[in-house]
Amino acid sequence: MNFDSVRQPFEPLVRNLLHRYWRFSRGLTIGVRGLVVDGAGRVFLVKHSYIAGWHLPGGGVETGETLSTALARELLEEGNIELGEAPQFFAVYFNKRISRRDHVALYVVRSFHQRGAPQPNREIVAHGFFAPDALPPDTARATRERIAEVLGGRSVTELW
Fold this sequence. Notes:
The protein is an alpha+beta fold. It is built from 4 helices and 9 strands. It has a single domain (about 30-150), classed as Alpha-Beta Complex (Nucleoside Triphosphate Pyrophosphohydrolase), CATH 3.90.79.10.
């Protein structure tokens, strides 16, 4: 009898137990943000009701959701934006200002459809496309840095 024949029946159980252990011992939270760029080179930003400033659209990845599914959901909810071609993954950042376990995946979206302005809701109080050199004065620092990295060729940092 070889090791593989003994291990194989127990593998799903062991994998499940390890993942449960990892969830509590080194769990993390992950979110997605989309840097949506229109044909004129403008970026789409949103202003939330619960935090100051203008931000890239996005949010948390729910249990059982992939990064791309979460991105598509958040863009639709916050900007009435439907993805066209697959977005380009850009980078993952550590967001230590939120917690010591939070990470953000950034995607660049150049192929999309916006069939109208987003519907007003309790989360998003304002939205719009802005030229990278004419962002609203209260655009969040992290948002400005991501735009500079993607569109301005600035070096990518690991911190959100």
